[in-house]
Amino acid sequence: MLHRVSLALALAGITAAAGAQTVTVNSGGGADHTTITAALAAVVANPTTPDIINITGVGPYNESFVIDSSVSIVGFGVRPTIITPGVAGDSVTSLNGRGIAVTTHTATPGAISVRLENMNIIPANATVTRGIYSNNNTAGATADEMDIELVDVLVTGNNGSGVPVTTDGLNSFDYSSTPGSFTFTDDLLFFAGLVDVTMTRTIASNGKGALSPDGLVFNPDTPHALTVNEGCRFTYMNRLGIQVAADGTTLRMNGTAANPILILGNDLNSTNPAFGIWHDNEGTASNDYVLSYVYVLNNANAGISTAFVDAGQGSPAVTADHLVIANNGDVGIGILADALHLGSSLTPPS
Prior knowledge:
Blueprint: H1 7-16, E1 21-25, H2 36-45, E2 51-55, E3 65-67, E4 71-75, E5 81-84, E6 98-102, E7 112-123, E8 130-134, E9 146-156, E10 189-193, E11 195-200, E12 203-205, E13 214-220, E14 225-229, E15 233-235, E16 240-244, E17 250-254, E18 261-264, E19 277-279, E20 289-297, E21 304-306, E22 318-326, E23 340-342
Parallel strand pairs: 1-2, 2-4, 3-6, 4-7, 5-7, 6-8, 7-9, 8-10, 9-11, 9-12, 10-13, 11-14, 12-15, 13-16, 14-17, 15-18, 16-19, 17-20, 18-20, 19-21, 20-22, 22-23
């Protein structure tokens, strides 16, 4: 069950960020802006760090947008739905077909910190490629660091009536039997460029039989960190639950007994195998590969599959505890690592 942001917690967040510029958005009026796009333009035009955009109405918000400065966008006391049309953009924004794009831009240079919290993101039509996308190696972008955090974010398909096909990621939606329903046609979450990503209670869930191949792709330009915290779910994708596709990536998956990380039901499409986690991660001694309270269940092929393919490179040490891998099609687990250090248990606690 997804957590709502309470008014008290949201107010506490504002207090902690004293001096921040805060604006409100409500599509029904009674706020500073009626669209998220307008609110982003306002905080960029009057820069204060950090900026906060509080969405006070459920929407829906039918818009795609680019984030290229430090900002927090928060569902404030409500859980808004953003229905992204994936409008065409130029090479600077990298928005072409994507719902929400994060980049660093020459007009607002410098490292950025972006937080999205308490919201649903679904596609507006059958041509939208990705839900959330980051990159800053395109023309017009700056090679500055991006720090992206997702908290209580749901990225999933559209049931045809502007409603998410799932709220908890635990059901496999049948698009073929629901006329007018559709999902993103590519990876739901895709992060490239100079980027570190942290997510908590974030769900990427597609539904079998649709086009999207992967729930989460992490492919930074240079070694960066992906941190997946409690309650994250990557389920019912047509190919991979999680793909880590960059040398030297630090991967930390920190579930809890009460709220484990779930990678479930990623199925086989016509041309590609379906793994729970797949990674090509030639590590160095400084890298972490940590799996704690991670459940990898009912995926069509291997639960975890790794590829250390570059000559002369070693593999990272793997630390795992409370790692459950079961009912996966080909093999339960495939980890190629120089050292496999197992923690307190390989089964969930009683």
